[in-house]
Design a protein that fits this description.
Structural class: alpha/beta
Number of helices: 11
Largest sheet: 3 strands, parallel
Strand content: 5-15%
Mean pLDDT: 88
Strand order of the largest sheet: 1-4-7
Low-confidence stretches: none
Radius of gyration: 25 Å
Distance between the termini: 40 Å
Shape: elongated
């Protein structure tokens, strides 16, 4: 993948509600004159996926003309794929991206009136958050054309890439696992906190910011007006009796550990 990115064989986009077929495949775009803003022209432009397909097709032509050719895959990475209007964005791709139709079946594009196919060396990777209920928008036609791989929260990633013991006191792996175990008991597996929340924390101050401005707000959204669940998951010290967040001190006590650190340790201790 790194070599593909270096050779400009990777495209990354994020779907949203207004993302369209014209941006993804092809469409008519307005052109404003530099001299007269009021004068508007139009031209046909390729979308990001069509451009990638053209480049991938050229790569296949090189393979046919060389016996020493090494296959070079092209990647279309779509973040938040479930947030777009799938049928509107993909259009005829719903059929063309099927494995047995790539490079074989061609269709006539509605704007350019030119034949188009999806090359066999194109890989489409879509990401989504299963806690997002808009996942239901993924229709059956698209589901059966993709292989779904679940990436679960994995605390071992923290020890693999980062120092998971913050300030020599707080074990992020144990903290994450304990919180997720309690979320499972109170809610469901789709609402567990991912390891990305705990990555890149290099100091106690980083952890403080992450805890109060990422973790607790997320839990507050999961358990809105449910103070009992919130205190069961992280303890009573982080909330008052009305459910308001309490910001604990980072000042070290006589034993060298701040009140904030100690209450995090108490969660999994």
């Amino acid at each position: 993948y790194e070599s593909a990115e270096a050779e400009n064989r990777v495209r990354t986009i994020t779907f949203h509600q207004s993302y369209s077929y014209e941006e993804f495949i092809e469409g008519i775009r307005p052109i404003l004159s530099n001299e007269e803003i009021a004068r508007i022209g139009y031209r046909l432009e390729n979308g990001i996926f069509k451009d990638l397909c053209i480049n991938a097709e050229e790569e296949l032509i090189k393979r046919e003309s060389s016996t020493k050719y090494i296959d070079k895959p092209y990647y279309m990475i779509i973040d938040e794929i479930n947030r777009g209007n799938i049928s509107k964005i993909f259009g005829e791709l719903i059929t063309l991206i099927e494995q047995d139709k790539r490079g074989n079946l061609k269709t006539l594009l509605p704007y350019s009136k030119k034949e188009f196919t999806v090359p066999s060396n194109i890989y489409i990777i879509g990401t989504m958050n299963t806690a997002d209920r808009s996942i239901a928008a993924i229709d059956t036609a698209l589901r059966r054309r993709f292989t779904f791989v679940e990436i679960e929260p994995d605390s071992s990633v923290l020890s693999q890439y980062d120092n998971h013991i913050v300030n020599d006191t707080v074990d992020l792996c144990k903290l994450m696992d304990t919180i997720n175990d309690r979320i499972l008991e109170r809610l469901d597996r789709d609402h567990r906190i991912g390891h990305a929340y705990f990555m890149g924390i290099e100091s106690l101050n980083n952890l403080y910011q992450t805890w109060y401005y990422k973790i607790l707000p997320l839990l507050g959204e999961y358990f809105y007006n449910d103070i009992e669940s919130l205190t069961t998951i992280v303890g009573e010290s982080f909330y008052d009796k009305n459910g308001n967040v309490q910001y604990l001190s980072l000042t070290k006590s006589d034993d060298g550990i701040s009140y904030f650190e100690q209450k995090l340790i108490d969660i999994y201790g």
